[in-house]
Known about the structure:
The complex is a heterodimer of chains A (about 160) and B (about 625).
Chain A: H1 2-12, H2 22-33, H3 38-47, H4 52-61, E1 73-78, H5 81-85, H6 88-99, E2 112-117, E3 129-131, E4 134-136, H7 141-154
Parallel strand pairs in A: 1-2
Antiparallel strand pairs in A: 1-3, 3-4
Helix pairs in contact in A: 1-2, 1-3, 2-3, 3-4
Chain B: H1 18-30, E1 38-42, H2 45-49, H3 52-65, E2 75-79, E3 91-94, E4 98-100, H4 108-117, E5 127-128, E6 135-136, H5 143-146, H6 164-169, H7 174-182, H8 185-195, H9 207-221, E7 226-231, H10 240-247, H11 249-263, E8 267-272, H12 277-292, E9 308-313, H13 323-330, E10 354-358, H14 359-371, H15 373-377, E11 380-381, E12 384-385, E13 387-394, E14 400-405, E15 408-409, H16 410-417, E16 429-432, E17 438-441, E18 448-449, H17 451-456, E19 465-469, H18 475-489, H19 495-513, H20 518-534, H21 538-541, H22 545-553, H23 555-562, E20 578-580, H24 590-594, E21 600-601, E22 609-610, H25 620-624, E23 630-632
Parallel strand pairs in B: 1-2, 7-8, 7-10, 8-9, 13-19
Antiparallel strand pairs in B: 1-3, 3-4, 5-6, 11-12, 13-14, 15-18, 16-17, 16-19, 20-23, 21-22
Helix pairs in contact in B: 3-4, 7-11, 7-14, 8-9, 8-11, 10-11, 10-12, 11-14, 18-19, 19-20, 22-23
Amino acid sequence: MSDQADIIEEIMGRYPGKPEYLIFLLQDVQADCGYISPEAMNLISEHACVPITQAYSVATFYQSFRLEPKGEHEVRVCLGTACHLKGGQRIVEELERKLNISAGDTTEDMMFTLNSVNCVGACALSPVILVDGKYETNITANKIEKILKQINNEHAGYSEGGTNV
Amino acid sequence: MFNGNVALKTEVNRLNSHTDLNDFRQQILDSYDPDRPEILVCHGTGCIANGSVELTQALKKACQTMGVDAKIMPGIKSTGCQGLCSKGPLVHIKPHGLFYQRVKAKNAEEIIQKTIIENKPVKHLLYKDPQTGELFHKEEDIPFYKKQKRYVLKNIGKIDPTRIEDKIAVGGYQALAKALTTMTPEQVVEQITKSGLRGRGGAGFPTGRKWQGALKAIEKKGRPVYVVVNGDEGDPGAFMDCAIMEGDPHAVLEGLILGAYALGAEMGYLYIRAEYPIAIKHLQIAMEQAKAYGLLGENILGSDFCFNAQINRGAGAFVCGESTALFTSIEGKAGNPRPKYVRSVEEGLWGRPTVLNNVETWANVPMIVENGADWYANIGVPKSTGTKVFCLVGKVNNVGLVEVPMGTPLAEIVENIGGGLPGGAPFKAVQTGGPSGGCIPYHLKDLPVDFDSLTKAGAMMGSGAMIVMDDRDCVVDVARYFLRFLEEESCGKCLPCRLGLSRMREILDNFSHGCGEEKDIDDLMGLAQAIQDGALCALGSSAPNPCLTTIKFFKDEYIAHVRDQKCPAGVCKDLITYSIDPEACTGCMSCSRQCPQGCISGEKKKPHAIDESACIRCGICMETCKFKAVIVR
């Protein structure tokens, strides 16, 4: 925990303590810590001189902020128009079946988080998913299986009692 | 554009006058060796996703290991989006002028050997016309490029966006120098007004009039005034602003600085969508470099004019593309819009007069100042001047970034530049303007694409997404898709948008489940009218457009859903069934292995069958089948 406190301390040093820097602070903390914990929220709201309720209002208004830790691997499915027309929704459903979670959730073993995103601008290669920020293009059910298998293989022994993919 | 590894200036000297800028430009041009080859590798989002970063590394490695003579050692550059995204990664080689497509890292040695060392083209990497089979050596001969008029995109794909020297060499900051030395701020505003430039963000408000409005507000309220770049490009299927910011960030920055000079602003903001990390990085670099050369910051080009700017990253709210919501977001709050009884030019950021323009609009400003309003007004059509950049995506052969003069017929863009649809069928509809726009059917294919013609047809220019749909795309599903998108993105402040959109989506859900009634279509239109009239901001008031235009042009398809419980395009899951054509099925078993329900049965080498009662209509069997034996009805 103290590690995180140090990181947050360092981030707060980057911005003056004014409400207009609230979003910058939240973004930087999330980038370094993966999510915004209640402790982080307290420190940020104090530093930015805004009530804690307002900090939560902002953090929950914008889609990019997470208040829960995310899994080790994040799979984001693009649902831009081009991807939608080429079956993006089917890809979400296939991943939901494979990971046994709903979009927006994390597997119990904290291995995978599944999210959708409104267009990543790679429309020529639709449907597209991002696995830990890496583009996987012209996605099919077959490719999903391969990608998940590969991640699983990287975590040796993970399949015992882990997410069944 | 210029050989990457020529060291120009080790220490940066501030440019203190127009002459300094010109001298520096000449120095860069003189250092350029026209005989030395250059390999320009596209680093647009699509090409990066297809492996252009690995390709660049492979090219650099090949140059080192293959003993290329120092005289012909190529400069290897990463550029912004070169446009033809569906054929990426793209590579452009100078001085040969060769254009290679679908280049992979494994082709690197072949390119160095054949093209750089032996001076010959690598034939299998050239662009081949899908219909005639003709091979094209040069970019400018390929129909996709030949039929475009590239002004905003002129330098994108030709320069390294992270080097200000490249930009200065092609005439960057000349417009700024011209304005600072020969024009008054009023004259800049006058030129923009006379040019007829209209906002590229969607609504098409005349930019000059916006600037004049801000000047009037300043008369009343005094300064400070702010200039802001709207880079919160949230329309799904649109990436032109992203490409401009990534590929030519100095064009946006120079436009913004010119705007600041015209209005007397000392501070500007660039609000950029956080999903565009490369755009943010390139603009950050551009700002640092411009500052170091004295083109941004204190006493710009040695004049009294001082202007600073900062980047704000968006945080994933589509509504923040709306002006007043964007301002509240910059102020660090939740991005709720406000009613616009008082326009944002009078009361914008921090309650001060503010001019907010879209990325593409700002990028148009320098060329207007440099070449004059009359030159600009001659491009396009009288009430929509200039060009427009579009993202041509969906069911079209040449997916990519295109720029055409305003007023170009829709068919010219889709069929000639876009190369038509895969398989050669005519398009069913083209969706323009994203979630706020509409669907234009095939029979209006000659519609000139300009602000007023599109609005008249019930669609909208929007930011420039152009999504081509074929007969496998269901209009009810598309309308539902956009409504669901906007329902999720609605900030919830006003009732018509918060509840109205949900209700519209519910009705469309019913249609797609086959439980609607014909009178629901009229209810839908009534509700749409109420939302258009009552919503607080443009997100809500334009939200019914996709639904209304599809009802207007494709009513039959709506009726098929509610009366016959059929989805003619074969998309709406509850109204379709999958089956296997026993004639076409070879019994390869690949579908039965992939089926998540295990509901496909059949022996090897014998026709298979789908158990309809267990089928969840996921479509995986159809996707897997190589023999087109799976049929959807």
